[in-house]
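REQUEST FORM: STRUCTURE PREDICTION
Request ID: SP-0412
Submitted by: Lab K.M.
Chain count: 1
Length (residues): 233
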Amino acid sequence: MSELWKNGPSFEDGSFKVSTDSVLLASFASPKGKNGIDIGCGSGIISLIMLCTNETLHMTGIDVNEDAAETASSNIQRNGLSSRYNVICGDIREHRMLFNTGSFDFAVCNPPYYPENSGKLSSDTKKALARGETLCTLGDICKAAAYLLPTGGSFYLVHKPERLPEIFCTMTKYSIEPKRLREVQYRIGRAPSLVLIEGRRGGRKGLIIESPLILTNDDGTETEEVLEIYRRA
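STATUS: Completed
RESULT:
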């Protein structure tokens, strides 16, 4: 059992350790609505952070992995947040059977990063499914988000920078306009290792590129912004 930050919510990792990308995505998301869905919720960390930092939110998690869905539910219950969270063990590709169109004000997703047959997948089956598009592709996720969001609804995504052209093309294919982009760099001068993206369902064209999020100083210590995100300032 661990704490997300000192005296903060406690959680159990389950099959996967809490990743920096999930924590950064939860911090990056700035939803105006109150009803959100975490697509591929894993152990529920994104929802847990968002619920703890915004008392008006209600989150729904969905994951095809039964163990992950159970871990997410346990993490939420452990922190007394069950009244504002529900989790579904299901396949997001079947979104039309699971939800009504426009059911959520916003969606967040830390998706599989690597295309099938890319050669970058783990030999561990569960990890391979979480990191590779074996069962669920970028297109599947954007298609589902477009269905689940009303016009004006926000879609928050963390991904790898090398797939950025494909991400933007796929989002716009499903009427989600990229509106905000922030690169994540390990250190100043390094190439970005992650990108944080906000899209808007049916939004107007126009992309805001924010200053990069730098994770470490030159001496290897965490930057002030990272310390704030992890409540270690």
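NOTES: Residues 2-229 form a domain with the Rossmann fold fold (CATH 3.40.50.150).
Reviewed by: T.R.
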